[in-house]
Amino acid sequence: MGALPEGERPWCAGVVVAAGRGEEVLVEEAFGWAVRYAAYDEATDRGVELPLEQWVPMRTGQSAGQDAGPGRDRGQDTVFDLASLTKLFTTIVAMRCAERGGIDLDGRVAAYAPEFTAAAEHGITVRQLLTHTSGLLPELPLYDYDGHEQRLARLRAEPPATAPGTARRYSDLNFLLLQRVLERVTGRSLAHLVRDGITRPLGMTATRYRPPRAWLPRIAATEDQRRPWAKLDRGMLRGVVHDENAHALGGVAGHAGLFSTAADLTLLCRALLGGGPPVLRPESVDLMLAAPGLGFEIDQPWFMGELAGRGAAGHTGFTGTSLVLDRATSSYLVLLANTVHPRRRPADSAPRAAAGTALARALRPGTPGL
């Protein structure tokens, strides 16, 4: 692939797509480039391409010549910044905690983390955090505050903008509060809770916060992060979290910060479609994936396409990631792209929806396969 003709702009530099039904792998393909640009040129509104020999292709185990399947070596797969797909892992940790009696989904945040004084004053509950009905603003500029304690102080004191339980407003703050609840209740960091409760039992060896330097050759680049289009001046990012607030909070956050591969996310999808073991009980999976959804978005055609409509559950991430589970057909769709490389653009989920529609049509009786 050479430089794009003048005036053309791809949806992403590269993408990895994985789809399956039950244990059957239907698609596992990589396209384009994990690393293509050295920077973004504001004057020309174009990416500054690296020398061609420095471009890094997107890869799956299949593209590396390995057999597909849960037992294969996944050490060559491209690793992505999952962005808000991290919220799904925080949700699963919360459901595990509820199963063990550590939290009550209808319990008040103040019962577990009383230092969150605004949540206490307004009676915000754990369920409201998980369903985005707390009334909290979508985000706060925590990255503008000096020091971890000042950032947490702002978060603790932030009141809801609307009465809790009256309306749905998607908010990263919900999962930052949920993170503190879980850490207070368990006495452990969210990174450890994700590792011990989800990734280790499922064998997700390429999923973690703050990936080690040894992973860098496998990691997709994200953004030449600079003002005015971004909120911080950090330059071209690769191997460090893209989200500015997650970065300011040390790379481990309830709303963003996890890195993973399509193959690893396939393991999670299969576990949830299989009822939850060894991560969750079936009744917890039902609560999480049934409308209105806990942590998960339900039946959203804007990114699910024609998979939506029969209880499909999933989520998207700002960096270009998405995941959809369709229990009606026992199928999953994982799409991981670096749409912010070399810089962020207005959101466009049409390609995600198109992939969902292609899978939905392929699974219909009498329709040719993918």
Any overview of this molecule?
- The strands form 4 sheets. This protein has a 7-stranded antiparallel beta sheet, sandwiched between helices. The chain has a 3-stranded antiparallel beta sheet with strand order 6-10-7. Strands 3-4 form a two-stranded antiparallel ribbon.
- The protein is built from 12 helices and 14 strands.
- The chain has 370 residues and is α+β, with helices and mostly antiparallel strands.
- The longest helix has 15 residues, at 172-186.
- The model is unreliable at 1-7 (pLDDT under 50).
- The two termini are 24 Å apart.
- A hairpin with a 4-residue loop joins strand 13 (321-326) and strand 14 (331-337).
- The chain is globular and about 55 Å long.
- The chain has helices at residues 86-99, 109-112, 117-122, 126-130, 148-157, 172-186, 190-202, 244-248, 262-273, 282-289, 301-304, 350-363, and strands spanning 14-21, 24-35, 37-41, 46-49, 56-57, 80-81, 208-209, 224-225, 235-236, 258-260, 297-298, 313-317, 321-326, 331-337.
- Helix 1 (86-99) runs parallel beside helix 6 (172-186) and helix 1 (86-99) crosses helix 7 (190-202).
